Amino acid sequence: MGGDPRGGCGRCCCCCYWGSWGTPRGPPPLCDPRVLEWFILEARDMEKALVGCGPRCELPEALPVPYPGVNFNEWPRLEAAARAGDVRGGVASLAAAAARARELLAADARMRPLLERANSGARSLARLLRDMTAQVRGGGAGPRRDHVIWGAGPMGGPCVSPPHPPPPRQWQVRSLDRLLAVHSSFLHGKVRLFLMDACGQPIRH
Known about the structure:
globular; single chain; 5 helices; mainly alpha; Growth Hormone, Chain: A; 2 strands; 7% strand
């Protein structure tokens, strides 16, 4: 079988980044595009696994999820803390939705592992975002400090997001396949755009 970047070397790469990043000597792991790409590929794999699942994917209650679209005219005008809050809140919402769906479909042996992966991935991404906060606040090397996430603001003053970011604009989903589609789109869209801006990488629509 062909090599999969999410298995073997891919997972080892991510683990090395997460495990070794405890000093301010380098940029945060999320400033390496390969780390977010790993999360995106995982999300797409889960989404593809449920193509055509039909009624089996229906949820007994609607679950709130973040709106995955990006308004490219509005986004650059948002304050850094607003962009950070939107992304952090969205990732937290995805983790909560996956956890709730897992409870609702606990008896389904096929769905449970997918939902555990979705919840675990969202929680891991949330931890990396929180660690990014700590590094910027602690003065470590890494993302741009002029208008980035939780570092200094455009004029050099503090621009720290609130400890509990405001909830992002939300949708509601009533099926598991739709939940995982939003998960994939949010990572590929808003999270990716946010990190490109925060880490000083070229932004491509």
